[in-house]
Amino acid sequence: MQRRDYPQRPEQVYLFGTCLIDLFVPEAGLDAVRLLEREGLKVRFPQAQSCCGQPAYTSGNPESARAVAQAQLDLFDEPWPVVIPSGSCAGMIRHHWPKLFAEDPVSGPKARALAQRVFELAEFLVEVLDVRFPELAARPEQVALHTSCSARREMGTREHGLSLLARLPGVEVLEHERESECCGFGGTFSLKHPDISGAMVTDKTARIAATGCTRFVTADCGCMLNIGSAAAHQGRALSGQHLASFVWDRVKDSES
Q1: Helices (H), the chain
Q2: DSSP per residue over 104-141, as a string?
Q3: pTM of the model
Q4: In degrees rounded to 5, what are phi and psi of residue 215?
Q5: Which of 6, 56, 175, 210 shows the greatest Cβ crowding within 10 Å of its Cβ?
Q6: Are 83 and 14 in contact (CB under 8 A)?
Q7: Comparing C-alpha atoms, which of 138, 130, 154, 157 is closest to residue 146?
Q8: Which tens digit of pLDDT belongs to each residue from 25-59?
């Protein structure tokens, strides 16, 4: 698990919602807000936020990525943590925004300061809030956890996802073969190399299905949509759910 200096429990946080959540899986963003509010936090959502710039950056267009980032640097001006329900987008802002502005005497310090306040959702829930669910009734279910490449390698948050799931009574995580491999999405990679991407996700769905579970959980919507759509196309009884929604579904059932 990646170690860093974690802040004390705050009273307020920002939520960076991500493009995919905004456009395709809004319930994941809302459930992330509900989990944070359950812990007594006030969640702020700057309406002018947009993309993290990763598609342009990984396509070799840092100028466009820089323009996207520049438009948002001042949106998170209060010294509150910025919580992101995506390891991929969190990795972009924490690790690559400072690189985009490395030579900029004005925006560089802003990007570096912001990067220090960025947390992936599971990381924040486990390390900063130390969430516990003692009131939850055990509801047995076996699931697989898929961790995106950025979340695993840039953010080091696979262990945070496992830790969060381990705190839910009745949940057993089944490790699938070659779990560390990419699902083939990779943002624009799947568009530029569809045959390779298709082969990768076919292998990924087969490995997850081989565990015997019928649901996989992930903290990145790109991977979730890719694996879930491939499984449906293949006729597999395998569905995906964002980690925030999986956790919140169990919390709301016990607290309603």
Answers
A1: 19-23, 26-38, 54-58, 62-70, 87-91, 97-100, 107-115, 121-123, 149-150, 158-166, 189-192, 194-209, 221-233, 243-255
A2: -TTHHHHHHHHHTTEEEHHHIIIIIS----TTPPP--E
A3: 0.95
A4: -145, 140
A5: 56
A6: yes
A7: 157
A8: 999 999 999 999 999 999 999 999 999 999 999 99
